[in-house]
Design brief:
about 350 residues, mainly alpha, MetI-like fold, about 0% strand
């Protein structure tokens, strides 16, 4: 009996070792499969990025060929149109460098005499930085309004990105009951001017106690419908094969949205953020309606407060105010063009 017990224990130990070895083999197989899946997913991501670069290069080459094929007449018309836009900005920049007496002689005398003529110039006769010194050193109210604009616009853009991007992804990739109706309401709200919704927004903000605060400017801007429309049209152009490949590799909806949708929809995101930034930075009616406390006013309301005897400061302030949007546009011009073009593609 003792011998049988020893033999039985030996068999049990041997079986345990076998089971343990089989478990180790299965664990190694699972780890190998996970490693292979990670490598395949990394290769697919690299392929997606290469495809994006190829498409971008193809668009650039196509644009170059199209420009070579066109004759000089459209380019001449576009050049004249650009001059009509840039000449006022150049005149404003020149006026900001003029001393008070030259500025009065060239522009302001027309307002008082009535029969005098404007003597516009792209270069001042006697350049002076006095207006910028007055604005940037002796005018603390300018910096207060500047930071008010920053505190109102930057959180609004962050909120739009958090709200609009998932909403646009849902409209572009999901099918649900009432989708066309809801999206039609978005489009309708997008085309309505501010004056139509001014009273209702004011009543809501007054009811929840947000008037005379930065949130009165931030919250209505977060729920803007324009970013949703632009991103939706761009997300709809993402090839279905890329989405299926991501789903087959085990990627969830959130992972696909963050690692496939947003990188490929980057131009639309930049476009919507750019347009929303310009709208918020240049807002006039909203702060006048919602902000009675002048210490909360943004930079767009600084110019109406400048007296006529400081006209050069007004030109300098206008130049500094429009400088940031112009720089952002020049740095994001290609993404802006791609986003607007993608939002107009007919499916």
């Amino acid at each position: 009996m003792e011998r049988d017990r020893i033999v039985k224990q030996g068999r049990t130990v041997k079986q345990g070792r076998t089971v343990k070895q089989e478990g180790s083999v299965k664990q190694e197989q699972l780890m190998e499969q996970e490693r292979i899946m990670e490598q395949e997913w990394t290769m697919k991501q690299e392929w997606i990025m290469e495809q994006g670069k190829t498409i971008k290069q193809g668009r650039i080459m196509k644009r170059g060929k199209t420009m070579k094929q066109t004759n000089g007449l459209p380019q001449t018309i576009l050049a004249v149109a650009c001059l009509l836009i840039w000449i006022p900005l150049l005149l404003m920049a020149a006026a900001s460098l003029m001393p008070e007496d030259e500025l009065y002689w060239r522009y302001l005398s027309v307002l008082e005499l009535g029969r005098d003529r404007v003597r516009a110039a792209l270069l001042p006769s006697y350049p002076s930085a006095e207006s910028f010194i007055e604005l940037l050193i002796r005018s603390p109210g300018f910096f207060v309004m500047f930071w008010n604009s920053v505190f109102q616009v930057v959180p609004m853009l962050a909120g739009q990105l958090v709200v609009a991007a998932p909403a646009a992804w849902a409209f572009a990739r999901f099918s649900f009951k009432g989708k066309r109706l809801v999206f039609g309401i978005y489009v309708l709200l997008m085309v309505l001017p501010f004056q139509v919704t001014q009273v209702s927004n004011y009543l809501v903000l007054d009811r929840i106690g947000l008037l005379d605060s930065h949130l009165a400017m931030i919250l209505p801007g977060i729920w803007s419908t324009l970013p949703v429309y632009i991103m939706t049209k761009t997300f709809e152009t993402i090839p279905g094969a890329l989405m299926e490949a991501a789903y087959l590799d085990g990627a969830g909806e959130a992972y696909t949205f963050l690692h496939v949708g947003l990188p490929l929809g980057y131009p639309a995101v930049v476009t919507s953020m750019m347009l929303s930034f310009v709208e918020g930075w240049n807002a006039l009616e909203q702060p006048v309606t919602y902000l009675k406390d002048k210490t909360l006013w943004p930079l767009s309301l600084y110019l109406p407060d400048i007296a006529k005897d400081k006209a050069s400061v007004a030109f300098a302030a206008a130049l500094v105010t429009c400088l940031l949007p112009v720089l952002m546009y020049l740095n994001c011009q290609e993404e802006l063009e791609q986003g607007v073009a993608a939002s107009g593609v007919k499916q």
